[in-house]
User: What shape does this take?
Amino acid sequence: MGDKLFSHEYDFSYDSKRRFVSYWHQIREVISCDPLQVLEIGVGSGFVSRYLRGRGIAVKTVDIDASLEPDVVADVTKLPFLDSSFDVVTAYEVLEHMPFEKSIEGLSELRRVSSKWVLISLPDARHAFRFACTIPRIGYMQYVGTIPF
Assistant: This one.
């Protein structure tokens, strides 16, 4: 990834408060594995890889989209790495962008190049609503419920 704060594909509006919360969880999970080498599939805005590199963790990025400036341009189903090349392999919010059959191939590749951990996340597709408010002297309250469809 270049030294730009954001790739041209991802402007500041992409990195919402909710997305930064997701970044926090992603980073926490990677750090909890105490890795030396991390492979990040799906560059996004580059925030997670930049943060991890700032913590002294070696990160290699892969994306199918060359315009996002990954370290390696490749398809998740055909990763150009030797078996067990990385302590941790991540695919955050990636697999849902491909047909199910292809995502199974991708999972197999993630496992092949990982020596220890594969971390994935997928968006929650349930229909839900959230109600939140701050009540004086009581504080912040939030309720999240599903909508049955």
